[in-house]
Design a protein that fits this description.
This protein folds into three domains: 143 residues, DNA methylase specificity domains (Adenine-n6-DNA-methyltransferase TaqI, Chain A, domain 2), CATH 3.90.220.20; 99 residues, Helix Hairpins (Orthogonal Bundle), CATH 1.10.287.1120; 158 residues, Alpha-Beta Complex (Adenine-n6-DNA-methyltransferase TaqI, Chain A, domain 2), CATH 3.90.220.20. It has 423 residues and is an alpha+beta fold. It is built from eleven helices and 28 strands. The mean pLDDT is 93. A five-stranded mixed sheet has the order 2-10-6-8-4, covered by helices on one side. A five-stranded mixed sheet has the order 17-26-22-24-20. It is 30% helix and 21% strand.
Amino acid sequence: MKIENEFIKLGEVAKFFKGKGLPKSELVENAKSPCIHYGELFTKYGQRITEIKSFTNLSGNLVYSKSNDVLMPTSDVTPNGLATASAIYEEGVILGGDILITRIPSDVVNGVYLAYFIKYSKSEVLRLVTGSTVYHIYGKDLAKFKLFCPPIFEQKKIAEILSTIDEKIEAIDQRIAETQELKKGLIQQLLTKGIGHTKFKDSPLGEIPESWEVFNVEDVFDFVATKSLSRAQLSYELGTVYYVHYGDIHSTFKYPLVDLNDTELPRILPEIEMSGNIQYLINGDLILADASEDLEGVGICIEIHNISNRKVIGGLHTIVLRDKIGRTANGFRTYLLSSPLTLPFIKRIATGASVLGVSKGNLKNIEVVLPPIPEQQKIAEILSSVDQKLQIQQDKKAEYQELKKGLMQQLLTGKIRVKVNPN
């Protein structure tokens, strides 16, 4: 098939099918037939399907993949999830219900190229989505989707370039997962058994090293006043008082030890009145986000350092804890509340329906376990080094993601053409 125009409607070159059957209950380990459940397109596959993750013993009147097929979920409770696509080159894979299959001649459109183009053109895809409580995308609507369609050899090269970057990202993801698992194991060991102990004792929180002590939070920390302001009252350009917003603890700060020399905080707009009991933060203050949309985010906190001469206050939905008499070491505080001996109790006191919250009144009675200061310092040094490694990996991933974003913008629009010898 010869394409006369580089911009085409997908329906001009593709046929559309729908998968069939395959409930989750039919996904079986060690089964004989490879298969893809539509839900896996959200969670297990990117733009390229290189390895089939699931198997089934189903047989009979089913729908099977062809090489170069592009798969999309046809329904979701939010529209955004429908703007995703995965190209498959393995033939004979069972494709479950609620999978929209775009079948295209491989000499006209490269499947991986199309999958990347759909991801890049998310806003255009979403215009084709229908529904209210449950959203759908159908073949008859996707047929109207406009595709930049350079010569097939150029498509393949673009797909190869983007796939190479994705392979880099996937490799980094694997290393991040390994580092996170290492940190999880170290937290379990160091914050319950410590370093080199042979003698242990019973405590209200379970068995702990003999030299460790148990305190209530209020015995160790003072509660520092905070000020509730909305994002609209903050700026990154104006103002002289810096502000720690709970949302930044959840999403912006990637490292539990926050160094203000390397971190940009929003500032309170000059016209906002700063009356009442204003308490500025000092180095080593522990800041807990007291609200979370899910249980996983309950108890997340940061320890702040290198404030210098900055004026900084704790903000909306934060609880600021300040060491009373030097029972905790710098760098250790941020890990204290994440101890397996303490965190479950913090999660237990979280209350709420759509948003879970922790109150000062409940937090003050939570028990924490403190090793001697020298051991705290060693524990903090070990966990901090793992967090630094994790940060380097996450930064490297972000670099590749930005590179991929820029290349998609240039290559998938024809702004930059890839020179390829078709022979």
